[in-house]
Design a protein that fits this description.
By secondary structure, this protein is α/β, with parallel strands linked by helices. Helices cover about 45% and strands about 10% of the residues. It holds the Pfam family Glycos_transf_1.
């Protein structure tokens, strides 16, 4: 398994969704597949080679608590990651060339733009390549991407199409988007839909360090990086309108934005920083730990998720598990995740969102039964989902090794 993304994110104490995916796969494999597990990583020199299992375990033992809010451990992570990356160059020349039923698992998009390095690794070790494709959003919606990102993502998908034996995707919607790239390729019939799990078992912890106003005003949450694709501008304009209509900030519910500031978002930032009506009515938090996010969601009137496009939608799944009402965009992947358990809205229909917000504020929270939450917890259980991903990789490998043994 490749852990390059986790090493590259050692200076970031707040994980993204893809960070969490790679972490949970690494943790599961350590616990359940250690007898056949080798960790590898990419070096900027264009090499992929082994990193020590015990050193990776130590790294993950620090990274998990840091993500859960342990600030005392933050300074250790970058040094641990640097030492691990440095070992790649040495092990490149000492790592034995494993021949046989080996699988190279890459569950992030890290270094998919470096096909030569991946191809050389696969050739040397006789491995089958099993990447995870999280989404094709930069290609499908280039207007929401950073400059140059659509072209980079095209190169990533070309690498997957040329080198992969199979692919894991988090949703059927992603599989459909990927299908044209897989046409006539070896992985065409080996695209496996494996939804992500969730990290919500820390529910209720971390409350002692909460930084939110305790004045009793109701609030709703929007969770995700502040970037155009997430459609924060819709919500900010609605909140400005609500303040104008009520004539009083204290009579307006709060909107709490959780997520780091991204790119191409000048209009949103201008409103956050300069609009008087939003002051104290819209709060922004860029560095909340996982337990703080869970506690914040549990106390809210609901989650607002007006995104134009998503590959999965972890905040939506998290809200389902916690029994938090949701209003979200009417896009196919959200229907996959939430079924009938969300309010679906056109992401451009401001009046409909205003009505949904008022509905959430009036809604009682007693309708979600413990049995229903248990069903969602089972659906989004991380060990279960990783086990399905490993099973998909093994099934793909078995198919290709069977063909090889028969000379096909």
């Amino acid at each position: 398994m490749d852990i390059s993304r986790l090493l590259s994110r050692a200076r970031n104490p707040i994980p993204t969704g893809i960070d969490r995916v790679e972490y949970e796969y690494a943790r599961y494999l350590l616990a359940h597949e250690g007898h056949r597990l080798t960790f590898v990583a990419f070096h900027p020199a264009g090499l992929i080679a082994q990193v020590g299992t015990s050193a990776v375990r130590d790294f993950l033992d620090v990274m998990g608590p840091v993500w859960d809010g342990d600030t005392g451990l933050r300074a250790r992570l970058p040094h641990m990651a640097q030492r691990l990356v440095q070992t790649v160059l040495l092990s490149c020349w000492t790592m034995p060339a494993y021949r046989g039923d080996s699988i190279y698992l890459l569950v992030s998009h890290h270094h998919l733009t470096r096909p030569r390095a991946i191809a050389q690794f696969l050739s040397r070790h006789g491995s089958l390549f099993m990447p995870m494709v999280h989404d094709l959003i930069p290609i499908e919606f280039p207007e929401y991407a950073r400059p140059g990102e659509p072209e980079r993502h095209e190169r990533r998908m070309a690498t997957v199409a040329r080198l992969a034996a199979g692919v894991i995707v988090p949703a059927r919607a992603v599989a459909q988007s990927l299908a044209p790239y897989m046409q006539g390729r070896p992985a065409q019939k080996h695209v496996h839909v494996v939804p992500h799990g969730l990290h919500v078992r820390l529910s209720g912890q971390g409350a002692g360090t909460m930084r939110f106003p305790a004045d009793g005003r109701p609030y709703l949450v929007c969770l995700g990086t502040i970037e155009p694709r997430k459609n924060h501008l819709l919500l900010l304009n609605l909140w400005r309108q609500m303040v104008k209509e009520t004539g009083s900030r204290s009579n307006t519910p709060r909107l709490i934005l959780v997520g780091r500031r991204g790119w191409e978002n000048e209009n949103v930032l201008d409103m956050l920083e300069r609009c008087p009506a939003l002051r104290d009515n819209v709060l922004e938090y860029n560095d909340l730990s996982d337990p703080e996010v869970v506690t914040l969601l549990q106390g809210s009137a609901g989650l607002l998720f007006p995104s134009f496009a998503e590959g999965f939608g972890l905040p939506l799944a998290e809200a389902l598990v916690l029994g938090v009402p949701v209003a979200c965009s009417d896009i196919p992947v959200f229907h996959e995740v939430a079924g009938e358990n969300a309010i679906y809205l056109d992401p451009t229909d401001g009046p409909a969102w205003r009505a949904a917000i008022e509905r959430l504020l009036k809604q009682e929270r007693g309708g979600d039964t413990s049995a229903k939450r248990g069903l969602h917890l089972n659906l989004f259980n991380w060990p279960r989902q990783v086990a399905l991903g490993v099973q998909a990789a093994d099934q793909t490998a078995a198919f290709f090794h069977s063909r090889s043994s028969h000379g096909l």
